[in-house]
Amino acid sequence: MGFPRHACRRSEAPAPRPARRAPRAAAGGALIAVCLLATACAQPAEEAAAAPPAAAPAASALRPAGGVQTGIASFYGPRFTGRRMANGQPFDPHSDTIAHRNLPFGTVVRVTNLENGRSATARVLDRGPWIRGRIVDVSPRIARDLDMVRSGIARVEVVPLVEVAEAAD
């Protein structure tokens, strides 16, 4: 019992195989394009570090913009000094910085300690706080202005502000 000879016969030439280089070349080209785009959009580290955060405008040039929030504020501990904030800049404990979960970066706010009435003007430059029940983290400088360093937390009111020149438009 055997197989017929024609079943085992090899063809004269192997069937041509489709080329597989085209998809690989396209994927490689796409990867290079993405890398070039990413490097073109990035700014050098020296440029990012050189731009200090803008100081909050004078309180007299601002007016409330609505969206008042009341809750608990805490302040950044010393271990955050120099760490990169969500906006890419290093944290400076002497700045007028606050962290807020969803106000846009650069928003100027007035933070008022509801226990003693002291207030300070600050700018949103970071995201947080990530502890339940807290609405803002403030820099140590703002914490001193609000007289909340000893307690570590305070019940505050946060009022977003707009510049008067913008309000006239």
**What is the mean pLDDT?**
78
Write down the CATH topology of the domain at 55-167: Barwin-like endoglucanases
Distance between the termini: 98 Å
Low-pLDDT runs = 45-51
Share of residues in helices:
10-25%
* Rounded Rg: 30 Å
Q: Which CATH class of the domain at 55-167 is shown?
A: Mainly Beta
Q: Can you tell me the CATH architecture of the domain at 55-167?
A: Beta Barrel
Number of helices: 5
Strand order of the largest sheet: 2-6-3-5-4-7
Q: What structural class do helix, strand and pairing data support?
A: alpha+beta
Strand content: 25-35%
Biggest sheet overview: 6 strands, mixed, barrel
The strand count comes to: 7
What keywords describe this structure?
single chain; 169 residues; alpha+beta; Barwin-like endoglucanases; six-stranded mixed β-barrel; 5 helices; lytic endotransglycosylase activity; lyase
